[in-house]
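Researcher: Checking consistency across runs. Here is GntR family transcriptional regulator again:
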Amino acid sequence: MRYRIDRRSGMTAYMQIVQQTKQAMRLGLLAPGDRLPTARQVVGMTAINPNTVHKAYRELEHEGLVESRRGAGTFVVRSLSRPETVGDSTLRAGLLQWLQQARAAGVDRDDVTALFTDLIEEYDALPREVSRPIPPDTNAMQQNSMEETE
């Protein structure tokens, strides 16, 4: 596990550690039983204060995701990963293909992030009881596959 602290992000360093740890857990990079880097190792990677690392690890422990074992380190005790988000899942492959298309179209990382964040917010704002619309290209693909099976 390698942490990256972006001092320009506006987010505190300890919250960046918490979020990066959770992201690694969601992606299956950290699993129950895995040991987190020591505070000294994180300080070496990031040049932040050891107390900041301890604060982040305490937050993760408070959330029931890790446990500190005196003299042994801090260990992951709960998984956040789902089959849809790890390894070579269909969902992950689809997102990778979309990112490749975006890169080929000249869309940079910040634009991808902005677009994706906007779409998530738009999607989350829809009422739960309302059927989520299927993008037009998906409708065409579904129609074509239905015609092929007839």
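Researcher: Does this match what you'd expect to see?
Model: One thing to look at in this run: Residues 138-150 have pLDDT under 50 and may be disordered.
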